[in-house]
Specification:
The protein contains ten helices and 22 strands. It is α+β, with helices and mostly antiparallel strands.
């Protein structure tokens, strides 16, 4: 039986950032990763390989409420889902930490405030090399320091679009991005949804795991799947891991789950004697209400390569005609015809190429409200089951309506909408919500498990609400905050 001071299960934004923050403590740290390092290879930038053949996704299927199975949007590799994310790293708005009334119900307050997290947002932006520009977005919360790097500049057509939006009285701002601009980044069109072949994306492997492993006290086990926790006398005694076909039992003073909101909850559900006084393990599953909005001006080709530089929050908290929060708009990486083919398999490729060559793509994101009926469970065969019914949808439809109107005014008369379904779960969160009361939450404000003081969960599981912003930077900031608190209590001989 191998022993460590800290075992961290998962190497994504949560686990990777935590390992980096603790690597100078001299604690003996083991990172346990279900997958392996993602190879740097030509297929990294191949739409066919990534979106059609799905070569980087696991051959794994989850079950939906209606019984059908689907291949989830998860990636088991060093760096986790950050290996293929779009590198958008915005902060939550300060109001996202407070109770907010939505058209579809209440978004609850967090047990921590924006001010509690603000200094760690600054640290996370520095760690992940975020490019941005303050004072452009009226909803932006206070900052104690500037972005570490200036904003990623707009290409000519995007700059023209931003100017058109400003003429409408809107406030387009430069989307905060984590890329190695001026270094390895070549501003390609495959940043969003693809692995980066040149390691220029600020993912958890590049920015956190590899730097942490420079120290001899940090070890990494790849191709090692955590199976269950063993509990004894009110604490976690050991972790069972399947590695290279062998079941190994390992021990630590502290255990941290960072497997993602679904898999962290699933690991707990697969374990025995886990205290659950709130009954909330696996409940309040949230993923955002997401749609892709394609805008086209048929007479003009889109010559932009790196178009993901604009975001808008003008309707984040609603407007005069809709007094409830609506959400966020942001451009996404340039969509190619072969990527459209996966969503529209019956359309001829010639038509898809015509559309893709003349389109500008947006991501429309609204808050998915916590609902205990939306939850995960484990079938008798060990399969993960997702019980999820979208809510707050009138708000999402309203945001789509104002977005289409905005684009028509900007000179894009043709728009297409693709609403994302249950398999688009890269923003999964909320299954192990944090709070002060063990009867109404699973984790405390420092992500310690109520009833098991040597267990923490540091991924988006802890979110009490989902907000309507990309979650990665908030996960990283909380990981840094948790690490500071852990350093005060490390039991190291």
């Amino acid at each position: 039986m191998k022993s460590f001071d800290i075992i961290i299960v998962g190497t994504g934004i949560g686990g990777g950032t935590l390992a980096w923050a603790l690597h100078t403590s001299d604690a003996k740290i083991l990172l346990v990763e279900r997958g392996d390092f993602l190879p740097q290879e030509p297929q990294n930038w191949s739409p066919g390989a990534v979106f059609k053949e799905k070569i980087y996704k696991p051959n794994e299927y989850w079950q939906a409420t209606d019984g059908h199975t689907f291949q989830p949007g998860v990636h088991y590799c060093v760096g986790g889902n950050s290996k293929v994310y779009g590198a958008a790293l915005p902060r939550f708005r300060s109001e996202d930490f407070e109770q907010l009334e939505h058209e579809g119900g209440l978004s609850p307050s967090w047990p921590i405030s924006y001010d509690d997290l603000e200094p760690y947002y600054c640290q996370a932006e520095k760690l992940y090399g975020v490019h941005g520009c303050g004072n452009e977005d009226p909803t932006e919360p206070r900052r104690s320091s500037d972005y570490p790097h200036g904003a990623v500049s707009h290409e000519p057509q995007i700059a023209h679009l931003a100017a058109s939006l400003r003429k409408q009285g809107l406030h387009p701002f430069h989307l905060p991005l984590g890329i190695d601009l001026g270094g390895q980044c070549i501003r390609c069109h495959t940043c969003d949804g693809f692995p980066c072949k040149v390691h220029a994306k600020s993912d958890a492997e590049v920015c956190a795991v590899r730097p942490a492993m420079i120290r001899p006290n940090v070890s990494l086990w790849t191709n090692s799947r955590a199976r269950r926790l063993m509990i004894r006398n009110g604490s976690v005694e050991s972790l069972e891991v399947e590695r290279n076909g062998e079941i190994i039992t390992i021990q630590a003073d502290t255990y941290v789950l960072s497997c993602g909101a679904v898999n962290s909850a699933a690991l707990l559900l697969n374990s025995t004697d886990i205290p659950n006084p709130s009954g909330l393990i696996g409940r309040n599953y949230m993923v955002h209400n997401n749609s892709a909005l394609i805008a086209s001006r048929p007479w003009e080709r889109n010559t932009t390569t790196f178009q993901k530089t604009i975001s808008l929050n003008d309707w984040y908290f609603g407007d005069a005609s809709w007094p409830w929060p609506m959400g966020n708009l942001q451009m996404i990486g340039k969509v190619q015809a072969s990527m459209l083919k996966t969503a529209r398999p019956n359309m001829p490729m010639s038509l898809l190429k015509f559309i893709a060559n003349r389109s500008f793509e947006w991501w429309v994101m609204s808050e998915d409200l916590p609902d205990s009926r939306n939850h995960i469970s484990i079938s008798t065969k060990g399969q993960i089951c997702i019980h999820w019914t979208p809510n707050n949808m009138p708000t999402h439809r309203r945001l789509l309506k104002v977005a289409r109107k905005m684009l028509r005014r900007a000179g894009y008369p043709i728009t297409f909408i693709q609403q994302m379904g249950i398999d688009t779960n890269s923003h999964q969160c909320g299954t192990l919500k944090m709070g002060n009361n063990p009867n109404t939450s699973v984790l405390d404000p420092y992500c310690r498990f109520h009833g098991l003081d040597n267990l923490r969960v540091v991924d988006a599981s802890f979110f009490p609400s989902s907000g309507a912003m990309n979650p990665a930077l908030t996960i990283a900031a909380q990981a840094l905050r948790v690490a500071d608190q852990m350093k005060q209590h490390l039991r190291i001989e």
